[in-house]
Amino acid sequence: MKEQMIRKWTALLLMGMTLLLMFIFVISDKKEFSENENRYLAKFPAFEWGKIRSGEFMEGLESYTADHFPFRDFLMGVKTQTEILAGKKEINDIYIAEDGYLIEEYQKPENTERIGNILKAFAGELEGEELEIRLMLVPTAVYVYEDKLPARAPRRNQMETAEQIYEISGIERIDCSRDLLAWKISAQVFGQRTGELYYRTDHHWTTLGAYVGYTAFCREMGLEAVSLDEMETRVVAEDFRGTVYSKAGDYTRKGDAITIYTNPMDRLTVKYVDTEETSDSLYNLEYAEVKDKYSLFLDNLHSLIEIENETADSDRELVLVKDSYANSMVPFLVRHYKKIYVFDTRYYKQGVSEFVKGHPGVTDVLILYNMNTLDTDLGIRGVY
Fold it and tell me: Is residue 86 part of a domain?
């Protein structure tokens, strides 16, 4: 009798909880965008006979229900915390590393030869032009902070792949990997340098990491790098939680600080060609108030940005073909170029090589990509 009562009340409790969750699901506001996951959530599928017959409607309904389930973020966070407490060291291709780092795994590359040949063809298009062309392939945290990875994490050397691309492309390299490693070792062993080279919760390098990359560029180009002591420093955010935070789903992580540097000598005009907007700053600090804070560098995504510095220390002009890693390096580069043309070839479809040929003032070309996304970056196809 007692067991029957327990079963009865257990069943009633479960049914009540189910009905309560269904009621909350129906009446709750449905968000279009998940700040934690940094993605748009599924919409209610269109009720069409063809989609019902094919099963597409039910698949869409399942995605919609999963994306808008009550207390979804909380439950996902609990799941991730449970996995971490159980000793799991990798979640959704993100390593739970030492010192609070979430580090994205480096997948085995599949398009190395194709990428090298694309870059070789781009350089071939500009053969005969009076240009300095350089290629900088930037390692990510999984390479520089390899010592922070879990013990059994596979070690795929990003710079071995970079070496193959350098060789196939035939473009003169700027290898900043040694500079990043040297900076890290100097900080660890001698304590002479402080600051993180990569964000703990995002796949990008920090502005300090970008500065180290910039000094490597200056060395190879024969330029005198601006000292950080000459720059005005400002922390514009202290709660940045980026892409790897979203992928891992560990919502208890402390956010990163974002520091920006400004050279008081610069007098800038920044033109976003696609939107026809103009600014005197390389930063849009409105992004410091939202989840996607890294987009404060160069105002997020633009196909072409024209930057002019009337107080630059030369009349040289740079074409920069890049991914988002370069965005935080541009504030250092502007000191040395009267004009910089910044291309995101995922969106610029007119051909960078044709642009360079049509602008005889261009003296330098820098192609800059990070190694973790280069293999799948669709923009690399658009360099020429």
Answer: no
